[in-house]
Prior knowledge:
Keywords: ATP-binding, Membrane, Nucleotide-binding, Transmembrane, Transmembrane helix, Transport. By secondary structure, this protein is of the alpha/beta class. The chain has helices at residues 44-51, 92-102, 107-120, 136-148, 166-181, 194-200, 218-224, 241-248, 271-284, 299-307; strands at 4-15, 18-29, 33-37, 59-64, 67-68, 77-80, 154-158, 186-190, 203-208, 211-216, 229-235, 254-260, 263-268, 289-295.
Amino acid sequence: MMDYMIEAQDLTKKYEGLTAVDNLSIGIKKGEVFGFLGPNGAGKTTSIKMMVGLLRPTSGKVIVNGKDIKNIEKGTIGMCPQELMLWENLTCKESLNLMADMYEVPKNIRDPRVQKLLDDLFLSEKADTVVSKLSGGMKRRLNLALAVIHEPEIVVLDEPSEGLDPQSRRVLWNYIRAMRDVEGKTVILTTHIMDEADQLSDRIAIIDHGKLIRLDTPANLKKEIGEGDVVDMKLSDPLKNQDLIQELTPQEDIISVVEVKGRINIRALNAIGKLPKMMQRVEKLGVVVEDISVRQNTLEDVFIELTGTGLRE
């Protein structure tokens, strides 16, 4: 039996005849970063709210660590919303202490935990700085620290990198990885940044029109779905280009082979895995490859293939 931290079983949510979420069943494993993607209006926010107990489903149920969600202990889940939920007139340290007190964290545990969060999220030098004077990146990192001050087993991150510069984004990404790899937390991540979902997620669920349409690892999604990788190849003898095109076109999972400005463009699912066979066909023609490059299929390609739209449409 799979060791799930959260199980959504046949979740459905209806609003006056509109079905926002339609019979959704998902299992989120303990200690994984679980990406949750979908176009605007797809039902992902409604789904997550039901899965963490903020919204009652019309039907279906949610099991958290073997218990009905209605019976889990306070503080099991930490929420980091996209909107900054900060006290502008408090310092970073005062904010963390206040949130810890709300969760009744004992002082002997609270103090070292506050300091560790300030260190891990590069806020130590701003510990006594009033929140209103922090940069946008610092505020977003503090927003995350407030969500995890009570050491929740499950952390929900809603667009955590929104508006961040690349340096701040890397700090945040490293901390998210550490929550999984060092602390063993289960992280649910929603994001419109495809590279973020790809880099951080162990598995990704893509939903549209309230239904789950695909659930797999980023690597498997890119291998199996989308327009395919592109191999751009230049032969030592361009006169052999058409011969190679005829050799490769009938091959299984080759989507297209065309000549562009004296080079050959080969589009195929999991093209990297097919490179050895491509090279065998080149050798058969008695030519060599002078130049080659590969552009891998992206998660953006996969998303558009499955939903027919961009992430923010």
